[in-house]
Amino acid sequence: MKRFALAIICGALATSALAAPKDCEELRKEIEVKIQANAVPSYTLEVVSKEEADKHDSAMVVGTCENGTKAIVYQKNND
């Protein structure tokens, strides 16, 4: 019974660690690496508030961070 309780507690702690909100700058860098891997020559990634992101086309929002209070908006620049 003690092992079962310990397993439940460990599982709950592991789940909460995985569900931790992601830092916006960390997520922006991860997205930037993926974009550069696709050889996009010129682009802009901007961290904006959720309200500001709602004004953009939903296809431009490439990620959310800080518990959904901010979003990362992608725009391909024409060169």
TrEMBL record:
UniProt signal peptide: 1-19
Pfam families: DUF1161
Source organism per UniProt: Pseudomonas spelaei
Protein name: DUF1161 domain-containing protein
Keyword Signal: yes
Keywords from the UniProt entry: Signal
